[in-house]
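ARCHIVE CARD
Drawer: 12
Card no.: 0347
Subject: one protein chain, sequence and derived structure
Cross-reference: see card 0346
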Amino acid sequence: VLLPPEAVPFGTPTPRLLKVWREAAASGVVLDLVYGPIAWDAMLNSEAVAQGADVLYVNCGGHEGLYSQLCRYRRKGLLCDGEDPQLLLHEVLTSAKSRGRHASPHASPHASRPNDDQV
């Protein structure tokens, strides 16, 4: 069992979680924004990884909520100035797809969704 490097209340947007999410996305791994960055961060900071062990991360989904979570990050002021959640999500999914990673069709930025005020 891996413990997270930092305790975070459930679903709370934090700069560290967004940073971890962006780093994983840059490598082609699309995580959800609730559990994914916490688990990914715990894995990368684990003793097993530090010792060079092979580690398997099983991504169980959660992509359906990416847009609404990114809207929460924007409202909290954690996205860069002018950064649009829809465009950011599109860029992340397109990048992951080009790297050959599976991107959930449920996270499509073109799917119908509530406006920012309803999220």
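Annotation on reverse: The two ends are 33 Å apart (CA to CA). Helices lie at 15-26, 36-44, 47-50, 66-75, 85-98.
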